[in-house]
Amino acid sequence: MLNLNSEINLDAKKFFRWWKRELAFLVPEKLRQIIEEGRGTILVRPDGDQFDLAYYLDERNQSLAKFDRNEAGAEQYKALLASDERLMKANLVFRLTGKYALQKEIALPAVAAENLYQVISYELSRYTPFTPDQAYFAVKRLKKEKDSDHVRVLLILTDRKILDGFFEDLGLFGMTPVFVDYEDAPNDLDQDDDYYNLLPESLRHKTSNTPRIIYSAMLTTVFLLFLAVFAMPVWFEYRAIQDLEAKIIPIEKEAKKIKALQMEIDSVIDETRKLIDQKNETPAILEMLNTLSTLIKDDTWLTYLQYADGHLQVQGESPAASNLISVLEASELFANARFVSPVTQDNVSKLERFQITVDATSIKTPDSTATAALTQAKAGGGHGAN
After folding, report:
1. Please, what sign has the CA dihedral across residues 180, 184, 185, 190?
2. Same structural domain for residues 292 and 169?
3. What's the structural domain count of the chain?
4. How far apart are CA 380 and CA 369, in angstroms?
5. Of 205, 238, 272, which residue sits at a domain end?
6. Which of 205, 228, 246 is at the close of a domain?
7. Quick one: how far is CA 225 from the chain centroid?
8. How far apart are CA 349 and CA 337, in angstroms?
9. Which of 97, 59, 120 is nearest to 184 (CA)?
10. Which end of the chain is more exposed for a tag (fewer CB within 10 A), N or C?
């Protein structure tokens, strides 16, 4: 079952080392050899009065030679270096055998994990027969067990006098080891920065920071170039958009003004059209009077005329009032003619008295033509605004 309460320890160094190895795996072999210049490791082991040398590269060990630990052996070693260019570029590791070192697994409280070296230095005489002044030691952390409140470490230790003697002989050969480890707990040579070292700080090889600075500067430059490749187009697009927006702002202001003027013009046109339409709904009074004069015969008299709300009401006398309905209906100007009261006969004049109401209809006049012109102007204005 998954334990969500378990502690998660994230080692950033291990992660980046793993990431670097994975990336290196993707690099073609020939190209990787050119970059790494075929750099391997010379393993030096003490074997009695001799040094046993082997060459390590890509998880393969190649035995080189054995040299006496004296000046003659040193000269032979230098001759070997001169004859093999790959040895000149290789790192050097001094690896103690079981005769000259020992190891011991120790369990410590988890709180001691932050200062393992100091804690073991205080307790060295309790774990080994040596005191801190008598031995060189190193600590290698082991994998932590699940649900354990202790940390397991491997203590690797060697006698100071023995290692100091070996170091003097290494100096005679001109050898400067990157680190000293123990063959029963060897460092992983493929992880060049994750190792323990039995050498004290005073004897360790001081590497120059210049290559590291150069590599860091190169990596920083490459990163900045990649950043520029991706960021510069985005920046240029952003600047172009900003310039376009700056140009669009005044155009938008003018467009808003034009739109407001167009709306005012449309409003005026609509009001004018409504007035013209209202006027065109009924004919002019003069036109109605002229039409009535034309339609009504001379034997008919009008005594009253009223026009309101599109209705024309007339009163008068006629020899045949019923004929007036058909006469008015025949006109394009009038429709729906009807009597609004009974027809009566005058006793004196013997004429029929009538009261007729008729609806006035609209006909095409110059005003209706103006309405069409306004409508066309509005449509043209709207098209222009778009």
Report:
1. positive
2. no
3. 2
4. 17
5. 205
6. 205
7. 20
8. 25
9. 97
10. N
User: What's the whole-model pTM score?
Assistant: 0.49
- On whether both 169 and 64 belong to a single domain, the answer is yes
Does the pLDDT at position 378 exceed 60? no
Residues 106 and 196 in one domain: yes
Residue 322: inside a domain:
yes
Instruction: Write out the two tokens for 156.
Output: 């690797």
Is 45 in contact with 93 (CB distance < 8 Å)? no
Share of the chain above pLDDT 90, in %: 18
Q: Sorting pLDDT into bands at 50, 70 and 90, what band is 15?
A: low
Q: Give the single-character DSSP code of 114.
A: G
- List beta partners, residue 44: 53, 94
| CA–CA gap between residue 321 and residue 275 (Å, rounded) | 37
Q: Kindly state whether residues 171 and 79 are assigned to the same domain.
A: yes
Q: What token pair was written down for 263? A: 């709306």
DSSP 304: E
d(CA 252, CA 242): 15
| 300-314 per-position pLDDT tens digit | 888 888 888 778 888
Q: State both tokens at 329.
A: 């209906």
| Nearest-angstrom CA–CA distance, 179 and 156 | 13
Whether 37 and 183 map to the same domain: the answer is yes
Yes or no: say if 355 and 340 are a contact pair by the CB < 8 Å rule.
yes
CB 135 within 8 A of CB 83: no
**351 is in which domain, residue-wise?**
285-361
**Cβ atoms 352, 320 nearer than 8 A:** yes
What are the pLDDT digits (tens) for 201-255?
Answer: 877 766 555 656 776 677 788 778 877 888 888 888 888 898 888 888 888 888 8
CA distances from 230 to 218, 223, 225 (A): 18, 11, 9
CA-closest candidate to residue 43, choices 242, 177, 141: 177
